[in-house]
Amino acid sequence: MIMSHDIRKGRTSEIRLPKGNWIQPDEFSDSVITAIRYHENGRAAISFINVVSRKIMGEWMLPDGIQPVQTTATGGRIYVAGIAEGGYGIWCVEDGIWKDVLAAQPVSITSLDHTAEGLITFSSDRNGVGEFYSLNPETGELLQLTNTRYGGI
What we know:
four-stranded antiparallel sheet
C-alpha cells in the first residue's frame, strides 16, 4: 500500500497494490508515481502507478543481480541507484533496455535526486568520506560538489 495526499482537497488516501514489497515512491509526473516493487519471487521492478485511477500502468523489471534502493526521474527517464556485485551504481532504462549510467563500484550511493537542469545528484563515499556529487547523464560528467575533511553530508 502507498499513501497518496491530494494537497488541493486536503485528503489522504491509500493506493492498494498487488502483493510484493513496495518501497521508495517518487513523483514521475503530475498523475504518475514510480515505486520499487520486490516481487514474491525475489525479482525487482520499477512500477508506474497512476494516482488518479490507482492502477499500475506498467513495470520495468530490473536485470538479475541489481537490488534497487532509490529512484529519481528527470528528462523523461527513470534512474535507479542500487547494489550489484561490484557495489553501488546508477542505471537507467532507455527503450526498454537497462544501461549503466555510473558503473557499480565498491562505494555507497545515497540521497539520489535530480535538479531542474536534469543533473542527477547523490551522496557517496567515493573518496573515503561522504560528499555530495552531481552527474550529467547525457555527458557522463561527474562533479564532486563538496570537499571537506570529514565529509560534506
